[in-house]
């Protein structure tokens, strides 16, 4: 009797996350989706970041393994600092430059593997992996933790080297004629690292490393994977974009799981999910505003004071996850019973899915954006930096599931009275239509990731493409 043929080994994919919470989490969620489809994945990490992989390694022990390298030192980074959590956006360029020093150790590791790497999936801040992929004969795939619009704008400015006239201020308008709808943004709304690069404020090697990062993504990659879906960003996905070098874009989002029962996604929560749910149970459906500005932003005392005054004057029930920030003295006592302040990490996914939460005041970071979209919760947009102004435009002007809370920007202090009015209007009758629209978009997001949906189809198609690389 003839022996059955030995099945071919699963394709081996190398994954390189960037060491920032908002970047690593969605890429690890994507790794889980690839693991369930039979791929074998080696995920690069460093000693201090290894714990982020623990849930993934426990869930897929046969498919996912960690490959740990020492974090490259840099004189501008404190010893032992391996993640941007708690750092300001001004330190991102240095992290990008320092992390790129892993290229040679990773290259040596890849060449020593008995089962060759067929594809390298790396965060868009790890553009140095694209020529690395070519060098080992693998396909280089850029993973974008941002939406398609934000990804195109970021690559466009570094590709075009847009300049601000010497006689203009931060309100100077930059147009993007090659992007559908020809969006435009003020200079102050572009990436801080780009503004600093153009102003010569970055150390020369760091600045060139940052720009080259984006150029490698455009020049060397096989294509982009974006954590988005067609019902949200179809106009930017229907045809190849010049600002993404006409590369293929697989839209596979939302990649995050629907639930986070433990409330520990991204770190240990400062309040238990069950305790927070019990507190929210006391409020009517859609009446509570959840306030959080992500893992990077820390409000200045003046900004925190303005927000606290607005929350107090608006009389709306709220949960405010302050992270590492401060709240004014006496504030919690004055809002006791209708306001809850969480100092540290909050179980955000669980909070947004509670029936009592009707609005989300957010910095418009893409992970938070998609968590709100998936939960059917409209947003009060308060962008700070990074891709957040691009996301706010998409949410307010196109998807119509957000209203602008204020002009935004790091250090911008809003008028407390105006902000209180925005809060009151949103939670009242004026916000009814937008709440309904948010529910409709949530249904579209759910359909996208199910069999027959656009994101499901793109993910399956990408996996088949990777299988053909062997």
UniProtKB/TrEMBL annotation:
Instruction: Write down the Pfam families for this protein, in alphabetical order.
Output: Glyco_transf_N, UDPGT
Where is the Glycosyltransferase N-terminal domain positioned along the sequence?
A: 13-129
Family listed: Belongs to the UDP-glycosyltransferase family.
- The source's domain of life comes to Eukaryota
**GO: which molecular function terms?**
UDP-glucosyltransferase activity
Gene3D superfamilies, sorted: Glycogen Phosphorylase B
What's the protein called, per UniProt?
Glycosyltransferase N-terminal domain-containing protein
Q: Where are the transmembrane segments?
A: none
Its taxonomic placement starts with:
Eukaryota, Viridiplantae, Streptophyta, Embryophyta, Tracheophyta
InterPro entries, alphabetized: Glyco_transf_N, UDP_glucos_trans
Keywords for the protein's UniProt record, in alphabetical order: Transferase
Organism listed in the record: Panicum hallii var. hallii
């Amino acid at each position: 009797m003839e022996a059955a043929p030995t099945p071919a080994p699963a394709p081996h994919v190398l994954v390189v996350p960037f060491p920032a919470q908002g970047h690593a989490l969605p890429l690890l969620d994507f790794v889980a989706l690839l693991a369930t489809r039979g791929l074998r994945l080696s995920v690069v990490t460093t000693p201090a970041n290894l714990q982020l992989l623990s849930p993934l390694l426990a869930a897929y022990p046969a498919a996912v393994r960690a490959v740990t390298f020492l974090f490259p030192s840099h004189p501008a980074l404190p010893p032992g600092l391996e993640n941007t959590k708690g750092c300001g956006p001004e330190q991102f360029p240095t992290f990008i430059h320092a992390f790129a020093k892993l290229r040679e150790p990773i290259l040596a590791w890849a060449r020593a593997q008995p089962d060759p790497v067929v594809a390298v999936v790396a965060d868009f801040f790890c553009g140095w992996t694209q020529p690395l992929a070519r060098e080992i004969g693998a396909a280089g795939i850029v993973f974008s933790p941002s939406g398609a619009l934000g990804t195109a704008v970021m690559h466009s400015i570094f590709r075009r080297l847009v300049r601000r006239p010497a006689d203009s201020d931060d309100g100077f308008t930059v147009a993007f004629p090659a992007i559908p709808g020809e969006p435009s943004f003020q200079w102050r709304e572009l990436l801080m690292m780009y503004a600093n690069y153009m102003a010569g404020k970055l150390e020369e090697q760091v600045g060139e490393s940052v720009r080259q990062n984006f150029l490698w993504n455009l020049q060397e990659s096989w294509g982009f994977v974006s954590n988005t879906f067609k019902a949200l960003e179809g106009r930017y996905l229907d045809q190849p974009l010049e600002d993404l070098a006409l590369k293929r874009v697989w839209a596979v989002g939302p990649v995050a799981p629907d639930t986070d029962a433990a409330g520990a996604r991204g770190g240990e929560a400062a309040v238990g999910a069950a305790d927070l749910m019990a507190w929210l149970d006391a409020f009517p459906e859609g009446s509570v505003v959840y306030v959080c500005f992500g893992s990077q932003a820390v409000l200045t005392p003046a900004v925190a004071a303005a927000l606290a005054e607005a929350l107090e004057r608006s009389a709306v029930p709220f949960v405010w996850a302050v992270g590492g920030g401060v709240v004014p003295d006496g504030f919690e006592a004055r809002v006791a019973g209708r306001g809850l302040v969480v100092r540290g990490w909050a179980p955000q996914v669980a909070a947004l899915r509670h029936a009592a939460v009707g609005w989300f005041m957010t910095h418009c970071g893409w992970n938070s954006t998609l968590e709100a979209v998936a939960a059917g919760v409209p947003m009060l947009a308060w962008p700070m930096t990074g891709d957040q102004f691009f996301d706010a435009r998409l949410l307010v002007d196109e998807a119509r599931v957000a209203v602008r809370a204020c002009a935004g920007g790091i250090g911008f202090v809003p008028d407390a009275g105006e902000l209180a009015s925005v809060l009151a209007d949103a939670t009242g009758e004026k916000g009814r239509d937008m709440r309904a629209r948010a529910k409709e978009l949530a249904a579209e997001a759910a359909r996208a990731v199910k069999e027959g949906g656009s994101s499901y189809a793109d993910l399956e198609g990408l996996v088949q493409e990777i299988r053909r690389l062997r």
